[in-house]
Amino acid sequence: MSLQALVEISRFYGSNPDYVVAGGGNTSFKGRDYLYVKASGTSLADARPGDFVKMDRGALARIWGKTYPADPGEREAAVLADMMAARVPGEENKRPSVETLLHDILPFAFVVHTHPALVNGITCAQNGKACAAELFAGGSLWIPSTNPGYILSKVVKDAMDDYRAQKGKVPDIIFLQNHGVFAGANTTEGVKVVYDRIMNTIGGKIKRKPDLSEQQDSFGNSGATGGELMAVAASISGQAQWFVKFERNAELVRFTASEDAFKAVSRAFSPDHIVYAGSEPLFIDAAVAGSAGGIREALKNHTEKTGVVPKTVAVQGLGVFGMGSSENAAANAVRLFNDAVKVAVYTESFGGPLFMSPEQTAFITNWEVERYRTKVAQ
Q: pTM for the full model?
């Protein structure tokens, strides 16, 4: 019954875009000996019992007693190997979430980790830490920006141990800067109570809500621009076909009004934004976008600079194009860019936007785990 409860709570949050977009987030249920955690590459929205990996908690606990290489790449590879070895027989065809260790150390039967734009309005804001401390003084933990994987789990474990030593309890809310939130309870209803508290508390402090209403007064030719982007992207990538999804809403019009306005959404806020929408969206001036040659040159220069075809292209005053090697990838690029837009708007209530550092962006871009997730997302 507990596994079925895990499936139900996963679908409950996974099907709500206020909490989860595309394949983001993960959930778990644990007993004394085993942990069931979401498999990497699966979706919470349509979770089934087979989408969770059964893990040996004893084997996971032994990871903390090991010494791993200092080199980040070697360390994460070694930890991943040990984590894979902790799968119980019969689970070998599944890959556990990268946050499995973090799920295991939280002393709650059910743990739900999501990336709500509203919550990330605080975790991705200049004054986020201070605001979270004020709003959740009764019990929460703030984790500064940390590379995901083993190091993040270690940082949370140490912070949680310190919190327990000082206050005699463990917080049921953990905010991860530039990432999202973990909430835990011993029942699924308890998890919902915690999340309601989080969303209502933050929501009560928001000065302006995002306006994603569709704008019909589009000027310029999005079809012609999209066609040129598809052709150029296919040529640059060497693929036979490239897909483009166009969107224009009130906030996109506002953020694409000028290059200066676009700065508030010009870099990634979280790992999800990197995986689905790219770490560096391309902004094209209206004058440049007015000609096929201008679009071609802008896309070519950006690709040479970053080493990859951009997943998101914003055209001044027109809107945003999501790009990818499949229709799903193009659609997800738009979804996650819209999510970034929502985050940017919410950060206005907490001191303004705080992007991921270049070092963290590079780590995630080159990390094997996120390359795997990007591949699955296609």
A: 0.92
